[in-house]
Write a structure and sequence with these properties.
The chain is an all-alpha fold and 86 residues long. Helix content is 73%, strand content 0%.
Length: 86
């Protein structure tokens, strides 16, 4: 995947992950970073259980990235000591 694809996938996955956890986005920049980190985390988690991770710009990769961004966001809130806000 090229850089533009990672940014677009990261933005969508980060926004969806933030919306699932916080019921709102964290802001465009944070959502992109969260989504890219989420794609990496999700890919790692899915590879650890024997499934394929992010493998292109498709629905499966978006699913993996969203799962990873949710995990990343939950860890972020746990480390910051803040709870999810409505």
């Amino acid at each position: 995947m090229n850089v533009i694809s990672w940014i677009v996938l990261g933005l969508v996955a980060g926004f969806l992950g933030s919306t699932l956890v916080n019921k709102r986005g964290e802001g465009m920049f944070i959502d992109i970073i969260l989504g890219i980190i989420g794609a990496l985390v999700g890919g790692l988690l899915f590879n650890m259980v024997g499934s394929s991770g992010v493998n292109g710009f498709n629905i499966w990769s978006l699913f993996v990235a969203v799962i990873g961004s949710v995990v990343s966001l939950l860890l972020w809130h746990a480390l910051r000591g803040s709870s999810s806000r409505a």
